[in-house]
Amino acid sequence: MTERRRAVVTGGAHRLGRAMALDLASRGWDVAIHYSSSEAGARAVVAEAEALGARAASVRADLLREDETATIIAEATEALGGPLSLLINNASIFENDLVETMTRESWDRSVETNLRAAVKLTQDFASQAPRAEIDGAGEPVARACIVNMIDQRVWKPTPFFLSYSVAKAGLMAFTRTSAQALAPHIRVNGIGPGPTLKGTRQSDEHFARQRAACVLGRGADAADIVQALRFILECKALTGQMLAIDGGQHLAWQTPDILMADE
Q1: Which of 8, 44, 121, 206 is 20 to 30 Å from 26 at the Cα level?
Q2: What is the count of structural domains for the chain?
Q3: Which of 166, 167, 161 is nearest to 96 (CA)?
Q4: What Pfam families does the record point to (predicted)?
């Protein structure tokens, strides 16, 4: 009997986390949906995943509290009935602070949620992940993956969302270094979305302008992010990389330096 594949998706109750979790469920993965406060949303995703034939469960933890973060992998493993082979660090806090307005509290919220939680989860995941197997050519093939949701802005930084941006830059560095540390047993990669889903603070007009300003004249859709996830999982030679799924936003985003270039 083929061993079931099991995944945990942090922030899996809504938006891109939900899209990735349900795509995994549709392709034979059992999924644990992490949430902090969106219990109803998590339960809804669990029900949808089960309707697709997956074993699914919800796992609650506040990523600002390391003692709660430390329970996620163990609870997901128990709920799904075996070790996990995929961790998606998707949960994120996106707050707009600047050098002038940043506080210790805003900094800590971003770093704890966007970076430190991913580091802790990686440690816990690695301790239970399956070892690489040897293929017919005598070479190791990783049987476990970590996918970190980063941001295209690590390649095209701006002075806005300072704490968030610094934390995501740290997550990019951690993706590369942990890919080396965990090879050949675990592949570690990232996805860097651009304008994909409208934020709660955005108007429809602002979101449309943001997408139109990308090199391709459009941003991404949830389906594009899911397609990137599929590629990462299927490409056995890929590790330490971030795929920027952003319509080319990282190449020519209209940041303040560009906007003022003609003045």
Answers
A1: 121
A2: 1
A3: 161
A4: adh_short (PF00106)
